[in-house]
Amino acid sequence: MLAPMTSPAATALAVLEREIDVPGEGLDRLRLVATPFVPEVRLHLAEDAIVWWARMEAAAGHALPPPYWASAWAGGQALARHLLDHPELAAGRRVLDLAAGSGLVAIAAALAGAARVVANDIDPYAVAAVTVNARANRVAVAAMGEDLLDSDAPDADLLVAGDVFYDREMAGRMLPFLRRAVARGARVLVGDPGRGHLPRDLLDPVASYRVPTTEPAVDSPVRRVEVLRPRAGGPDPETGSGSAGGSNPMPDVADRP
Ligand SMILES: C[S@@+](CC[C@H](N)C(=O)[O-])C[C@H]1O[C@@H](n2cnc3c(N)ncnc32)[C@H](O)[C@@H]1O
Fold first, then answer.
1. Which numbered atom of ligand 1 lies nearest the CA of 66?
2. Could you name the CATH architecture of 72-230?
3. Does the beta carbon of 146 sit less than 6 angstroms from any atom of ligand 1?
4. Is 145 close to ligand 1, i.e. is its CB under 6 Å away?
5. DSSP the chain
6. What is the per-residue pLDDT across 144-188, written as a single tens digit (0 to 9) for each?
7. Which residue ranges make up each domain of the chain?
8. Nearest protein Cα to ligand 1, atom 11
């Protein structure tokens, strides 16, 4: 008899639900915690993501993607804070959180009153994490696992992306995608702590925050993190000319003290 088919995200969801139901006590456990800079949002995060990852790989018997979803990244925390402090940005809008990880930014958009929130991430564990974290915060967020970055800009009014410029390939695909969304009339906001592949000359800062760091392998307890939007009228990174920036009519706002 054939075994029933299960999707990677369904398998990951079953694993996370089991981990949440029977939490351990060591560094390799998940805990439901208030996000340091966004205490309105509680997330199932790893006590130590590296140790959790090692245990899960040993149990699975094969390599698993790094559990980015098990930490609240500085860029995502700033962006989530920004949406909650300026709910008019998301209220009543269709929001897409790209590379959503834990779903922190998506959940903040839902709490801010978004009409519909979709969280997208290619890691099936992140898709599962979005599901359990949305549930923990009693908000509706649809989680999806397709890779959208080479597609046309999706049907959303506001695109948000926290901490997505951490590697060359990702950055090289992300910015053109975001600019296609802007050209189509969507608003776009990214949150970034100055990662190496941030295309600083193609983005304009909207706000900046001092964010407590909780992610692995960061020594400083606090990082300055900017919320930025694609610069209107800058060169198109795909063609090197013209304007793919559109008007992206986001209001400027001051720093949070
Ligand atoms: C550093 S984490 C940021 C997570 C979250 N936005 C935050 O700020 O906490 C980057 C995320 O990008 C996801 N990712 C990588 N490539 C992707 C792609 N092509 N499409 C969607 N997500 C992707 C990873 O799986 C990971 O969850």
1. 25
2. 3-Layer(aba) Sandwich (3.40)
3. no
4. no
5. -PPPP--HHHHHHHHHHHHHHS--SSTT-EEEEEETTEEEEEEEEESSHHHHHHHHHHHHTS-----GGGS--HHHHHHHHHHHHSGGGTTTSEEEEES-TTSHHHHHHHHTT-SEEEEE-S-HHHHHHHHHHHHHTT---EEE----TTSPP-S-SEEEEES--SSHHHHHHHHHHHHHHHHTT-EEEEEES--TT--GGGEEEEEEEEEE--STT---SEEEEEEEEEPTTPPPTTTSSS-------PPP-PPP-
6. 999 999 998 788 999 999 999 999 999 999 999 999 999 999 999
7. 8-69, 72-230
8. 99
